[in-house]
Amino acid sequence: MAPNTATAGKSYAQKAADLFMTAVGMKSATKPEPKEDAFAEEKLNPVASANLLAERCRQYLSNSDVQKIREAFRYADQAHLGQFRNSGAPYITHPIAVAEILASWHMDAETIEAGLMHDVLEDTGITKIEMSEKFGVKVAELVDGVSKLDKLKFSSNEEAQAESFHKMLLAMSRDVRVILIKLADRLHNMRTLGAVKQHKKFRIAKETMDIYAPIASRLGLFSVYRELSDMSFSYMYPIRYRVLEKKVAESRMRKKNALDQIYHETSDRLAARKIRGDVQGKNKSLWRIYSKMKERKIRFSEVLDVHSFRVLVPTRDDCYRALGVIHELYKPVPGRFKDFVAIPKANGYQSLHTTVIGPGGLMVEFQIRTEEMHHICEDGITAHWLYRDRNTSDQLQRNTMDWLNGLLEIQKQSGTSLEFMENIKVDIFPDRVYVFSPRGRIIQLPKGSTAVDFAYQIHTDLGNCTIGCEINGETAPLTRELKNGEMINIIKGDKPTPNPSWLSSVRTGKARAEIRQYMRSLSEEGKIELGSKLLERSSKSHHLPYSKVTNEDWTRVCKANGFTDKNALLDAIGSGQKDSLLLLHQLTAPYTLKGNETATTVQQSQEPVLALKGQICKLAPCCTPAMDDVIIGHYIAGTNTLHVHRKDCSHVQRGMRTDPENWRDLQWNSQYKGGYPVKLDIELTNTHATLERLTSMIAQQHSSVTGFAMSQQNSVDKVELTILVGDTKHLQKIINAIRTIDTVRLVSRHLESTPAMKPVDVEIDE
């Protein structure tokens, strides 16, 4: 990818650290190496850059290894001859920079050779066979694992990305060095993104935020994760980034004296207790701060842990002693203590976290860990190469390979690359919950996981045969979200009967892949039978009048969803392509409105609004008006049709200016007994765990879901539901009920905006 032309040389993490240290007046927690301009490698002669790389490698590799690296440079230089980056620099400067990053992680010679040649197979006519003959099969396999699939044709960019990522993960499962090369490649590309055209910056930054930053976190490469996250943030939302950067700097300068006092008091008290503690100021990622503000819907001034310190001590025992000292000095904030030393994260992270109230009521976070833990935290899986004489990374290596093998297992059960991408995406994010098996085994799962996820994590057969569960000794629903520290006991049946409805609540990729694989294995008759049973089961558990559904209802719903007949729809439910509860809502929609139990269809013989005789009224989909809304109609000449809008609809405001003579005030027809389809916009923190609760809640309020769409915008899960309501009072009752669901962030009535009214970047107020 192309570089940019001019940005400051230090990484975002380093710049933030320097800013913090200037404000607090203490030594930096990071250990940045002196860097020139980010494009220094492109201003030097490539041969000179290669010589500098060779000298760096010579510090820890043999002369024969360095010679191989030089040969790889010459090979790549010749292959990329005549190719240039967007900045105008020779293309070879990018592979050299990637190799330099790998050398800073003390990677072996094969990895650095592959880093130098990582674009050769993709961008030149050289084949994998030719490369393997000259540099060996392992190097060629590494390069092939990193290469994209640009030469193949896909139906969409999403499919191309999924297939490329699919291939990379499979290669990564065979050799983890593949992803390290890819991360180094992405890190340099992000550092040089300025020269890329504006419309590409957001796409590349979002891909980095969605995929590569989480992978870096999952592998324990937190320094890489922080830099990728903050750089992606700066390109995705430049205004928000600059506003937040300024506010963090101002806050640190204002609180300089208090931070300085905390630093000296903590250092002195540790020394007095004869604990060798190295207290360091720690910069918090701007993206983490912004994410917290967005998730909790709070202002910058309400973020409690903008300012934090790190304490490095010699031993594990000293971690807990230092914690006691800090809690003696400052009052801890209840509920803000986490022990990742006793129970490490899946990526090997270990540390004690506590938030305390310092001088003047200033809240600061302390992270306490040993030097050994710190190396694993910052360097992650690369600690295996950085600290060869240590055994500290052995467990992390095992955890990583277990994770990669798990991805390989999910891949085998996934039907397509897009499905594989969907299945594994949640597993690469770091938020975890820790639960126990009856024998005391600790199982780590993504937040929002259920007992079904737990069962599949133990073993596929257990998951397939699950019929119930006990949580802390008490019977509990299989779809209930698990919490930290709970003990889970799975009740196993005699035969494998996974329920496709679990797909709406399970969180792990393994569970989703196994359930879908089971459904794919059924015969056509088996899928139809299962689909029918799922509809009956859903109708009983959600009290929906399935028995009243007629052939006309089946025809209506089949047509609305693109199915030829009833059996095709049941097949789609039984194979997991369609959610049984959502389709059940559509089938029973005419019978769910309170007081309308005897209706067979929404009455078409009577118009919902009072209009001239013979005129057809259509409720506008842009604002979905309902009884008691203030409404206005737009008459379209020649069609004899009135389009009914809410008066606050943006299309009305625009239409009244351009075509005022064809707009008229309207009144609702109080004799109309049909329902009104209304759209709701809902933001969720956990889509899979919420949908069933959402549709169930709507059914309890005597309504039904007649339309459903899901999307993700700016890393936020969004659902657009169309529900049937009797009037605006009924609608408000439904909205109030939905707001009681803890995983619902926001619910509002849908109202489309015209292009001129689209929202823009908002400022972050303190």
Per-chain topology:
Elements: H1 12-24, H2 40-43, H3 46-58, H4 63-79, H5 93-104, H6 109-116, H7 120-123, H8 128-135, H9 137-146, H10 157-174, H11 177-191, H12 198-218, H13 222-236, H14 238-254, H15 256-272, E1 278-282, H16 286-296, E2 308-313, H17 316-329, E3 331-332, E4 338-339, E5 352-357, E6 363-370, H18 371-379, H19 383-386, H20 394-413, H21 417-425, E7 432-436, E8 442-446, H22 451-458, H23 460-464, E9 466-471, E10 474-476, E11 488-492, H24 509-520, H25 524-542, H26 551-561, H27 566-574, H28 580-592, E12 609-610, E13 616-619, E14 631-636, E15 641-646, H29 650-658, E16 663-665, E17 667-668, E18 676-684, H30 687-700, E19 705-713, E20 716-725, H31 728-738, E21 744-749
Parallel strand pairs: 2-6, 13-15
Antiparallel strand pairs: 1-2, 3-5, 4-5, 5-6, 7-8, 9-10, 9-11, 12-17, 14-15, 14-16, 18-20, 18-21, 19-20
Helix pairs in contact: 3-4, 3-5, 4-6, 5-6, 5-11, 6-9, 6-11, 8-9, 9-10, 9-11, 10-20, 10-21, 11-13, 12-13, 13-14, 15-17, 20-21, 20-24, 21-24, 25-27, 25-28, 26-28, 28-30
